[in-house]
Fold each of these.
Amino acid sequence: MGKVLLTGGSGFIAAHVIDILLEHGFETVVTVRSEDKGRRILEAHPNTPKEKLSYVIVEDVAAEGAFDEAVKSNPPFDYVLHTASPFHFNVQDPVKDFLDPAIKGTTGVLKAVKAHAPSVKRVVITSSFASIINAKKHPSVYTEKEWNPITWEEAMDHSNVYRASKTFAEKAAWDFVKNEKPNFDIATINPPLVLGPIVHYLNSLEAINTSNKRIRDMIQGTTKEKLPPTGTFIWVDVRDVALAHVRAIEVPEAGGQRFFVTAGHFSNKDLADIIRETYPDLESKLPPKDSPSDIPADIYGIDNSKSVNVLGLNYRSLKNSVADTVKSLLAVGA
């Protein structure tokens, strides 16, 4: 099947990517920031032979030459899946905390592959709907053709910096391929809000991914007085995002493509109603039953047909995703 380097191996999406890579027969090496995280990944896959799953340490993805040693391998790598990038709202310095790690991390991987891993045929990059959305003027339908028009100056506003980091990192990747003409092609996966079961061996309730926090808050009763605003009205399940990454190295036609990976529209009211239906014991902790939905009547449309037709995705339902997410959160003490 081939050998894959997966960066950011202890992340929410990457943890699911590992499972699918192993299921599909790929020899998998993950990058992690510490021995502890690497060991936890191996311990969570006790029946996987060590030649099929291993890790290398990359402490700082934004450091010069961070991936130079990680991409060297014997036998050599065939593919790289780059999922490592910061996503949180604890911004002290927009450039240092977000923009540098995202942009330099992405271009650093591509430079390292070009210089030290001539065997690599494709690099798949976790981008985001953040690099597609135009918050000032939504198109009637979002597709892969759209780009976030955000500027560097606008990125200095802390509320914009995450979206900017994903936009600039993805643009830097496409520019690299155009200008450097490396021995590989790239594909990007662009999901919106990512829900779905957390991976228990890596996540505490305090350290879960930002998107799932809204479900955690509901089942812990911190939003029972009032339903919070939804914010982003489109979503996808993490397992479908993970599969998209793997399919993007398996399908030859995926090279040179962006993939808008989304299952459809939702609101926080939908989440609360599904939890109410699937876990009636949690009723007392949930926001009021008669809370109105805040989806605008003229909400933008979405076109995910490329991900379906090229990658073969068959998206999970919101009910399935939310129920599985709640189950995984309760299992770690929510």
Note: The mean pLDDT is 93.
Amino acid sequence: MSAFSPDLPPVTDPATVDWASIPSPAFVLDETRLRRNLALISAVQRESGAQIIVAFKGFSMWSTFPLLREYGITGATASSLNEAILAKEEMRGEVHVYAPAYSDEDFPQILELADHLVFNSFGQWERFKPQVEAARAAGRELHVGIRVNHEYGEVETDLYNPAGPFSRLGVTRREFRGDLLDGVDGLHFHSLCENDSSTLERTLVAFEEKFGEFLPRMKWVNFGGGHLMTREGYDLERLIRVVREFRARHGVHVILEPGSAFGWQTGWLVSSVLDVVHNVKDALLLDVSVSAHMPDVLEMPYRPRILGAGDLPEQGHHREASDGAAQEGHPYIVGGTTCLAGDVIGEYVFPHAMKVGDRVVFDDMIHYTMVKTTFFNGVKHPDIGILHADRRYELVKRFGYEEFKAKLS
């Protein structure tokens, strides 16, 4: 295979964006960056022969779905009835569904929506198999899979490690029931989290060692998500080779369902300074909340980049380092406006003294951020907008009291 070098479009330089013109707070997706990711994902899909679908749990900004379809993304994976409905109504392609457990109440509607349906246990498969068989007898073409756990993972944070000890996700080899595979035509695994293709290659070794004997009976294998192919430095050639070789070895259709790869570095969270307070150290109070609008900062945890800001000289760099090297300037503790004492990101150095009304822009805030926001404390929820390639800003959604009230009783 020749060197893989897809032709990717240029992207917007954030230094050229007039941030003050964008109403705050707002999640802002950059169309040029999304197109760049989609061009790369589409090229990987074409070269590898795998089907790449979007995982709604990481990226489900449905106003962008026409762009995804434009680049040949023809399906989505849902983790609930609500996501399955969204996939059918807005993605308008294949609907793949996996959930750790299905309820008797939701399953009939999920069954109507799904093209691929993955069960987390043989108990669930046996429970709902009669309904699946009835749907097939009525003429439905329905693919059924079992999620397996090969008990191999390279995820640093336990919160995000599906292959960790005593995981409730997937069937381990010792619990696997080869005698219950009648009606099952695929296997699904998911143990990656923003990993490179070298991790996938090692993962497939463990998967084949544990479950390879069942692959001759399968038509497809879903490699799950966590394939961060749009990150700079990701080994795309290895990914393409690994997928091709697996398809050739086993004669199966391969599915990848990344979420982060679609939204990776495609936009920002724009915020404004509401107040500057001093208690030994200066602190910026922003019109966004860390706990309500950037929960992974506390859960993972990680330190997001702020455009134009840097680290204190004594600070080391974090997994998601702030913008630029450690520097001298004006240090501020950056936090939100909820009553949670820990609604704080950390301390950053800004090149100038900050004042009320100044914009603070957080980088890479589209994937796994927008999908996890809450209305905690009733604080204003950020708008959702798109910065188009022609620099036109489109307000897609503004949240108000009714959305907050609708979550309560």
Note: The chain has a mean pLDDT of 94.
Amino acid sequence: MRPAPAGEDWRGLAQRLPRQLRFGVSTWSYPGWEGLVWDGEYDPGTLSKHGLEAYHRHPLLRTVCVDRTFWRPLTAGQYAAYAAQADEDFRFVVKCPASVTDAQVRGDEGKALKSNPDFLDPRLVVEHFVQPTLAGLGAKLGVLVFQLSPLPWGWLGRSGALLGGLGRMLAAVREALPADAPVIVAVEVRDPELLGRTLVDTLKAHGATFCLGLHGKMPPIEAQLPMLRALWPGPLVCRWNLNRIFGPYGYADAQKKHGPFNAIVSEDPHTRAVLARTIHGVTGAGQPAYVTVSNDAEGCAPLSIQKLALAVEAEQEASRRAKASP
């Protein structure tokens, strides 16, 4: 597949950004990105299988979030097929299957059917997730994301049991990762009640970080940043998934409004500005930053990333001017 020539217009900016900063999208099979990411008309099936061949050549797109793993575990061979489409500098962000990180077994429409007996199971997380990703992606594995789906009150009311189980799972993950592997382990939550010192302590104890989840079910970015400050120094992992104007359950509405995902439709300058300052602070201290964006954030993930990159560059320039002034 061919990359869009317009992508080259961003190479100079990409070279001025911190090397430890990686922008990417959340899934990539969108024909509407013709002219932005790929040069030609491709159907979603072709893009799903082969789109990374063009995607990874865009100078601003140095990572991608593999979301499909949340719904069903992938094999080492499937991960290897993805890795084969990207160069050696590229890194993958991968979500753990919901079969481990959701406390409930759900039907096709997301309705809870029963309690999940495998919730936070240390053995399954290694066998179904850590080992296949390592075997298939190798050195191109950048971040393992463990998104805890919205929890029933039976779990939220027993934070000690919940965080104990999370800690045991994270310990198994760390043991399964090679000691010299620079893989970031990040935990994302969908319940604001979990934000606080006890979660911070659990993450610290097992060498994990907090993933900023930007969408309507969680507080805005500035209300989540204290979690990162409490874990400092450490990396930034951020998934900008949904514009808050659509509410906590507005993914379908966002898709309807934003399609075919080739333009900024629901601009969110506030989130972008705070995120750019956060990126600048983290990378300025020498820490890595992985930031993935969905079309549901503003309408077109590649264009959102371009605006974010420009905002980060502006932060860098403002910092240089401040240091140079008497």
Note: The chain has a mean pLDDT of 96.
